[in-house]
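Cast an eye over this sequence plus C-alpha coordinates and walk me through the fold:

***
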Amino acid sequence: PAAAIKRSSCSPLNDGIITMSATGGAPGYRYALGSGSYSTNAVFSPLAAGNYVVHVRDVNNCIIDTNIVMTDSLVVSANISVQDALCYDSSSGIIITIGTGGAAPYTYAINTGTYSGLGSFGALKANNYTIHVKDAIGCKLDTVLTIGQPDRIVPSVLTTEPTCNGYSNGM
Protein backbone atom coordinates (compact mmCIF):
# COMPACT_ATOMS: atom_id res chain seq x y z
CA PRO A 1 0.00 0.00 0.00
CA ALA A 2 0.99 3.60 -0.57
CA ALA A 3 -0.01 6.62 1.46
CA ALA A 4 -0.23 10.24 0.39
CA ILE A 5 -0.01 12.45 3.46
CA LYS A 6 -1.06 16.06 3.86
CA ARG A 7 0.43 17.02 7.21
CA SER A 8 -1.73 18.67 9.80
CA SER A 9 -1.15 22.42 9.93
CA CYS A 10 -1.09 22.44 13.71
CA SER A 11 -3.09 21.86 16.83
CA PRO A 12 -5.92 22.86 17.26
CA LEU A 13 -6.63 22.81 13.50
CA ASN A 14 -5.95 19.05 13.19
CA ASP A 15 -6.46 19.17 9.42
CA GLY A 16 -4.17 16.36 8.26
CA ILE A 17 -5.25 13.92 5.55
CA ILE A 18 -4.09 10.39 4.74
CA THR A 19 -5.05 9.02 1.32
CA MET A 20 -4.30 5.33 0.82
CA SER A 21 -3.93 3.28 -2.36
CA ALA A 22 -3.17 -0.38 -2.91
CA THR A 23 -2.11 -2.75 -5.67
CA GLY A 24 -1.61 -6.48 -5.81
CA GLY A 25 -3.62 -9.10 -3.99
CA ALA A 26 -7.22 -9.32 -5.13
CA PRO A 27 -8.67 -5.88 -5.98
CA GLY A 28 -11.72 -4.60 -4.17
CA TYR A 29 -9.71 -3.05 -1.36
CA ARG A 30 -11.20 -1.82 1.90
CA TYR A 31 -9.42 0.46 4.35
CA ALA A 32 -9.56 1.04 8.11
CA LEU A 33 -7.82 3.55 10.34
CA GLY A 34 -6.71 2.09 13.67
CA SER A 35 -9.58 0.17 15.28
CA GLY A 36 -12.15 1.77 12.97
CA SER A 37 -14.37 -0.19 10.63
CA TYR A 38 -13.39 -1.08 7.06
CA SER A 39 -14.83 0.83 4.12
CA THR A 40 -14.04 1.55 0.48
CA ASN A 41 -13.16 5.12 1.44
CA ALA A 42 -9.36 5.42 1.29
CA VAL A 43 -9.26 8.99 2.67
CA PHE A 44 -8.96 9.68 6.40
CA SER A 45 -9.42 13.19 7.74
CA PRO A 46 -9.33 15.43 9.68
CA LEU A 47 -6.31 14.17 11.58
CA ALA A 48 -4.05 15.63 14.24
CA ALA A 49 -0.32 15.04 14.41
CA GLY A 50 0.33 11.55 15.75
CA ASN A 51 1.00 7.90 14.92
CA TYR A 52 -1.57 6.02 12.85
CA VAL A 53 -2.00 2.45 11.57
CA VAL A 54 -3.96 2.02 8.35
CA HIS A 55 -5.18 -1.49 7.49
CA VAL A 56 -5.76 -2.52 3.86
CA ARG A 57 -7.86 -5.63 3.19
CA ASP A 58 -8.47 -7.22 -0.19
CA VAL A 59 -11.51 -9.30 -1.24
CA ASN A 60 -9.78 -12.48 0.01
CA ASN A 61 -9.52 -10.93 3.51
CA CYS A 62 -5.74 -10.62 3.24
CA ILE A 63 -4.67 -7.68 5.40
CA ILE A 64 -1.55 -5.52 5.38
CA ASP A 65 -0.85 -2.72 7.86
CA THR A 66 0.90 0.56 7.17
CA ASN A 67 2.32 2.66 10.02
CA ILE A 68 2.17 6.39 9.41
CA VAL A 69 3.64 9.23 11.44
CA MET A 70 1.85 12.52 10.88
CA THR A 71 3.56 15.71 12.02
CA ASP A 72 2.40 19.30 12.12
CA SER A 73 3.68 21.37 9.23
CA LEU A 74 3.62 24.62 11.20
CA VAL A 75 5.02 25.07 14.67
CA VAL A 76 4.45 28.34 16.47
CA SER A 77 7.20 29.37 18.85
CA ALA A 78 8.17 32.59 20.56
CA ASN A 79 11.09 34.58 21.87
CA ILE A 80 10.05 35.67 25.35
CA SER A 81 11.82 37.92 27.82
CA VAL A 82 10.77 38.34 31.44
CA GLN A 83 11.66 41.21 33.77
CA ASP A 84 10.90 40.50 37.41
CA ALA A 85 9.12 43.05 39.60
CA LEU A 86 11.56 45.69 40.86
CA CYS A 87 10.27 45.79 44.44
CA TYR A 88 8.47 43.39 46.74
CA ASP A 89 4.70 43.36 46.04
CA SER A 90 5.01 45.94 43.25
CA SER A 91 3.31 45.83 39.86
CA SER A 92 6.43 46.42 37.81
CA GLY A 93 7.08 43.06 36.09
CA ILE A 94 7.20 42.91 32.30
CA ILE A 95 6.80 40.11 29.74
CA ILE A 96 7.74 40.77 26.10
CA THR A 97 6.77 38.15 23.51
CA ILE A 98 7.70 37.94 19.81
CA GLY A 99 6.04 35.16 17.80
CA THR A 100 8.05 33.06 15.34
CA GLY A 101 7.36 30.04 13.15
CA GLY A 102 3.85 29.35 11.97
CA ALA A 103 2.27 32.02 9.77
CA ALA A 104 2.61 35.73 10.61
CA PRO A 105 1.05 37.97 11.83
CA TYR A 106 0.73 36.89 15.44
CA THR A 107 -1.67 37.85 18.20
CA TYR A 108 -0.99 37.55 21.92
CA ALA A 109 -2.95 37.14 25.14
CA ILE A 110 -2.10 36.78 28.81
CA ASN A 111 -4.02 34.34 31.04
CA THR A 112 -7.70 34.57 30.03
CA GLY A 113 -7.37 37.98 28.36
CA THR A 114 -8.36 38.75 24.78
CA TYR A 115 -5.90 38.45 21.90
CA SER A 116 -4.30 41.56 20.43
CA GLY A 117 -1.37 42.42 18.20
CA LEU A 118 0.72 43.58 21.18
CA GLY A 119 3.07 41.05 22.73
CA SER A 120 4.14 43.25 25.64
CA PHE A 121 2.52 42.87 29.05
CA GLY A 122 3.46 45.23 31.87
CA ALA A 123 2.47 46.28 35.37
CA LEU A 124 2.63 42.64 36.49
CA LYS A 125 2.95 41.47 40.09
CA ALA A 126 5.03 38.46 41.05
CA ASN A 127 3.00 35.44 39.93
CA ASN A 128 2.67 32.72 37.27
CA TYR A 129 1.28 33.85 33.92
CA THR A 130 0.21 31.94 30.81
CA ILE A 131 1.19 33.66 27.57
CA HIS A 132 -0.77 32.64 24.46
CA VAL A 133 0.61 33.18 20.95
CA LYS A 134 -1.67 32.57 17.94
CA ASP A 135 -0.61 32.81 14.31
CA ALA A 136 -2.65 33.98 11.31
CA ILE A 137 -4.26 30.56 10.68
CA GLY A 138 -5.03 29.73 14.31
CA CYS A 139 -2.01 27.67 15.36
CA LYS A 140 -1.24 28.28 19.04
CA LEU A 141 1.53 28.18 21.59
CA ASP A 142 0.86 28.42 25.33
CA THR A 143 3.75 29.10 27.71
CA VAL A 144 3.66 29.41 31.51
CA LEU A 145 6.11 31.97 32.91
CA THR A 146 6.91 33.25 36.37
CA ILE A 147 7.45 36.87 37.36
CA GLY A 148 9.66 36.96 40.43
CA GLN A 149 10.32 39.69 42.99
CA PRO A 150 13.02 40.59 45.49
CA ASP A 151 12.58 39.78 49.16
CA ARG A 152 10.63 42.20 51.32
CA ILE A 153 12.78 44.89 52.96
CA VAL A 154 12.92 44.23 56.69
CA PRO A 155 14.15 47.23 58.64
CA SER A 156 16.14 46.62 61.78
CA VAL A 157 16.87 49.03 64.62
CA LEU A 158 20.12 48.91 66.58
CA THR A 159 20.06 50.51 69.99
CA THR A 160 22.93 51.51 72.21
CA GLU A 161 22.28 52.25 75.87
CA PRO A 162 23.77 55.44 77.31
CA THR A 163 26.98 54.83 79.19
CA CYS A 164 25.57 56.31 82.38
CA ASN A 165 22.18 57.27 83.72
CA GLY A 166 21.38 60.79 82.60
CA TYR A 167 23.85 60.80 79.75
CA SER A 168 22.47 61.27 76.28
CA ASN A 169 25.13 59.38 74.33
CA GLY A 170 22.91 56.37 73.53
CA MET A 171 21.11 55.74 70.30
User: Anything to note?
Assistant: The radius of gyration is 30 Å. The chain has a mean pLDDT of 94. The chain has no helices and twelve strands. The longest strand covers residues 93-101.
